[in-house]
Model the fold of this input.
Amino acid sequence: MNFVKLILLTIPFYVISDEIISIPKAKAQFNIDKNYTNFEHHKQKVKDYYEHQYHNDLQEICQNALLYFLSIKRPENAVIIFDVDDTVMSHYHFYKEKNFEWTVKEIHARHHQLQSKAIKPILEFYIQLIKNKFKIIFITARRSCLKKATYQNLIQEGYTNFEDLILFPIELRDKGVKAPVWKANTREEVSKKYNIIGSFSDLQEDFEGGHTGKCFKLPNYLY
Ligand SMILES: [Mg+2]
Done:
């Protein structure tokens, strides 16, 4: 194994920034201390990040990830797992329009209306993966009743080639099963048929429970 390969195999591709506080953290601070004046300042920092640095950071993560996937010995039936919301698809402009004061109900309505937008650097990376004959599975905590809408929205936005799209069954959500637990169990099921070589998500808890392959954490300062 050469030195470059060794480095690629050992570095975690996490983006960690101390400079930006997420919207909920800034809001919580605002609610605790009404004299806290930085909420608007942090909203502006988040806007600056998403409109200037976000895509650069994603490109860097994706470039490293592609080098990594091309450098490893690919096992038989290798597959890469992607989360959907704020991993491959975005509602950033909607959040911004709402001044970051949105409801889950509004987001669900947007999911039904196929209004999620592809995140460009991730889409470009996805296209490279498909060209290199990698298999992709999407696992999302969206409710299973959204399967048709999510499938159509992914296709409409350019994610046209994937092995499977797996959504969180409503009955499990109703029983109180937590999304990261369901995702880990789902990856375990997927592992019976495929070799998972990598996982991408904007939320750290999506990597809990194993069966992830190499983890690629993407930035999220929105929630
Ligand atoms: Mg997500």
In short: Confidence is low (pLDDT under 50) at residues 6-12.
